[in-house]
Amino acid sequence: MYGVIDVGTTGVKLAVFDNNIRCIYYEKVELGYESVGQGRVEQNSIKLAEIVKGFAKKAKSLGARKIGLSTYRASVLAWSRTGKPLSNVITWIDGRGREVVEKLPTWVGMLKTLSKSLGKVISPDTPAILMKWLYNADPSLQEKVSKGDAYMWTLDSYLLFTLTGRFLSDVTSAALTGLVNPKDLSTIDIVYSLLSIPKASPEIVDCVYDFGEFEGIEISVSIADQQAASVYHGLLEAGRVSGVHGTGSFIEQSTRSLITSGKGLVPLLIASIDGRRFYGVEGFLRSSGLIVEWLKNMGFFRSYEEMEELASSGRMKSIFIPSFRGLRLPEASNLRGIITGLDPGVSKEDLLKGLAWGIALYLAFILDSISRVAGKPQEPLWSGGGYSRSDTFLQVLADATGMRVARTADTEASIRGVLNLLLYSDGRISMEELRRQPTAERIFEPNMKENERKALLESYASLLRVISRWEGNVLLSGKL
């Protein structure tokens, strides 16, 4: 039997599967955020560790002998040699990295213009920059980490240390820190030097690995949550494409080799298994489910079933620019949410349909950018995550992208990806089977005419370019 712990941005999930791969137990605990000021999004590191350890114990009590972890990425914290957290988790949607970048010497900015790769690393949302913020906030950490009395790295490493006492990190998270080269996993010495931070990193290992034990249960898999979903969707084969729509929306396309992608896109290590690395290109939107949750809290609807019913009857009158946490593509980190097309006739139904269109058009914009560097993707576009349960959204996504969109019966794609890797670790499935795509529960066919779709996407791209140039305006950056 197997247990999967999926650590997402808004909550932690446990799924336990019997030897026939049937889910016999499922639980989700909402975690929430710590309120620490405008633009700062932290999570309680002590509470998070307690939930994960509790879920591991629960899985063992139900008969699981192995567990695997999927963890949200690009989030950092510090902890002592005893495992005591020395900070909260600074999450990937936190905005404080701008403070670090703005204070860097002028000559660092000049280096960024000369090197595109360096420019992507010296970015407000890079874990390396968030680590620098923590070092600045607590100068004593510099000495503690240098002496080995404390550790600072990504969330996966902290959770693995909490469970096993070993300072490890799986490749999928480590390669996104800006401190590790995703091609050969070597340290990027120039970034350590530019930021003046201790060169202290964990042992970086494959996604399937003997990570250690927690109270007698083996930990055999650790992988970033988006990459786990990509594994489930069959992206170990080049040219396939997957989207996961949770707190944010992520689009990943698998490639035959590492591609240093265009501005705003992320070169990705999808997985490393038995020393074999699988690559991809990613674009993302920080706020999709985040906006859905905000609208629910604002009273637009009481349940997700009601949201779907309202959105399905809405008209395409207004469009959300889904930029609650800024945009990476085009670069507009200060831009905040905008709704266009408002008039007295716009209804609640229209606004919810406009949200679906706003997210879908942005993802189509990302896909178009990815295709320019990685080639045209194979259909279908696989979709997972909570918002993918919306038929309205997936139909709009098919229309916006011009691609068939596939949804599996189980939309918990990250959990299923980890499960497949656990099965592989036990020799129950082969690499060939691991590459296979899942069975689609439903396919959404694009209904929009191609010339209409292209015209709409061109107009949307023009709108993005215009508002990204205005992002410094106080009205658009939410600074009033």
TrEMBL record:
<feature type="domain" description="Carbohydrate kinase FGGY N-terminal">
    <location>
        <begin position="1"/>
        <end position="199"/>
    </location>
</feature>
<feature type="domain" description="Carbohydrate kinase FGGY C-terminal">
    <location>
        <begin position="244"/>
        <end position="421"/>
    </location>
</feature>
<dbReference type="GO" id="GO:0006071">
    <property type="term" value="P:glycerol metabolic process"/>
</dbReference>
<dbReference type="GO" id="GO:0005829">
    <property type="term" value="C:cytosol"/>
</dbReference>
<dbReference type="InterPro" id="IPR043129">
    <property type="entry name" value="ATPase_NBD"/>
</dbReference>
<protein>
    <submittedName>
        <fullName>Carbohydrate kinase</fullName>
    </submittedName>
</protein>
<dbReference type="InterPro" id="IPR000577">
    <property type="entry name" value="Carb_kinase_FGGY"/>
</dbReference>
<keyword id="KW-0418">Kinase</keyword>
<keyword id="KW-0547">Nucleotide-binding</keyword>
<dbReference type="InterPro" id="IPR018485">
    <property type="entry name" value="FGGY_C"/>
</dbReference>
<keyword id="KW-0067">ATP-binding</keyword>
<dbReference type="GO" id="GO:0005524">
    <property type="term" value="F:ATP binding"/>
</dbReference>
<dbReference type="Pfam" id="PF00370">
    <property type="entry name" value="FGGY_N"/>
</dbReference>
<keyword id="KW-0808">Transferase</keyword>
<dbReference type="GO" id="GO:0004370">
    <property type="term" value="F:glycerol kinase activity"/>
</dbReference>
<dbReference type="InterPro" id="IPR018484">
    <property type="entry name" value="FGGY_N"/>
</dbReference>
<comment type="similarity">
    <text>Belongs to the FGGY kinase family.</text>
</comment>
<dbReference type="Pfam" id="PF02782">
    <property type="entry name" value="FGGY_C"/>
</dbReference>
